[in-house]
TrEMBL record:
Gene3D superfamilies recorded: 3.10.450.50
Domain of life, source organism: Bacteria
DUF4440 domain boundaries: 38-143
Species of provenance: Rufibacter glacialis
InterPro entries: DUF4440, NTF2-like_dom_sf
Pfam families given in the database record: DUF4440
Protein's UniProt name: DUF4440 domain-containing protein
Signal peptide (from-to): none
Amino acid sequence: MKIPPYLRKTFYLLLLCFTLGCKTTQPLENIKTEIGEVMRQQSEAWNKGDLETYMQPYWKSDSLLFLGKNGPTYGWEKTLQNYRKSYPTPEAMGHLTFTLLKTEQLSKEVVFVVGKWHLRRTIGDVQGHFTLVFRKIDQEWKIVADHSS
């Protein structure tokens, strides 16, 4: 599978930050707690069937990147539309849980997260993994890139 140049550049940038071990100003444990709380609130909103609240941690921008099985999607509104289309009923949405596996601070305003997601559903469970890039925007952690599979 050929990787598009724009994704390759993003990968190399993330790799460079990992390699250089960017300095932090906030303790990583505090950041992990903050990110964990964002993810907890997201799953809570999902489990209530509230996709708009679930989407609040996502960067409300046309530059938001969501990468899933159908390829890249750009933009907050388009990502919300895709969620609505893929999960049209409470049965399809099920009960969401996240497990955070790794949280790595790339800079004082950028965090890389790896985790697992699981939907318990009466129509059959589904699960997978995700990588998220959070960026501190206006004093809030926002998801600027999401790769879920």
